[in-house]
Prior knowledge:
- There is one protein chain.
- The chain is 54% helix and 0% strand.
- The chain has 79 residues and is mainly α.
- The protein has a domain at 5-53.
- The chain has two helices and no strands.
- The model has no long low-confidence stretch (mean pLDDT 81).
- The N and C termini lie far apart (45 Å).
- The chain is elongated.
Amino acid sequence: MIRSDIFSAAVVTLYLVIYVALLQFGDREFYGFCMLLFSPLLVCRMVYTILKFGRYKGSDLGDGEFGYQDRNKDGLGIF
């Protein structure tokens, strides 16, 4: 069982890129169709792996109202 969320996302992304590339060629459409049948399973497995084993490495929100990491909380103002 693969427990790396980054590896799982990379493998599924590569799979889907190959799938799209196969659809561009007329004589390879059958292989693309076969890959289409397995793609929902792979995407669901990727989502499961990310939700189960993925770790958030950002700062904790704490008592703050906003979770933006690229902006200072005091500089956001009121919407």
